[in-house]
User: What shape does this take?
Amino acid sequence: MPIGSAKRQRRIPFTAACVAAFLGTMLAPAQSLDSASVIQRVNAAVKARIDNVAGYTDTEHYAVYRNKDEVHPVAEMTVLTTYRQDSGKSYTIISQTGSAIVQKLVLGTILDNEKHLNEPGIREKAWITTANYVMTLKPGGVQMLDGRRCLALTLVPRRRASFLIDGTLWVDSMDGSIVQVQGTTSGSSSLVSGPTQITRQYSNVDGFPEATRLRGVSESFMFGRTIVKVDYRDYHIQLRPNL
Assistant: This one.
């Protein structure tokens, strides 16, 4: 047997062993994940945002679709949103088109609900923490979502409320920050509609998770199947000064 062939044969098991060892180090954290420590990171990430973000502004575009048509919105609205931790949210309408009734009864209701939900003393009840949810780490380890290494947890609200979601939470595997939440609200937001199916996606903005897209689907006897899509952009974050 040529010497070169013998060397190549000896190298094959060595290379395979190196690859196996490398993969072992990559998979070990996922295999040894501890549910309690992951949940603790989720709580810590939410607290870090609360402690550091004093306020922000962003531009939000709302589009409402009816029945199965998700191409032609029946109403649209673009707003400038201002959030201050000490006072809550306020909105300035930049533009609106389409059905005036849908603008008022659907989009107007959404903005009113968001204002109420972000009032001091109220918003704490909606935070994605163990104070409001029972969380359980799902099996499967690390998974990719929007190009990020994530962990999935089940969310079970501790009480029924229109702003609490029964579903799944995806968080960054390193720091526990929110990447996506998906599920059904545990209560109805109005007397004319039932629970809403929600998917909300987040991106890192100045080191903290902020919503970037939302899709909500609800059924009502007045409007039938209604789909609301929201795009959030142009964030300007105001951080608390270092004390």
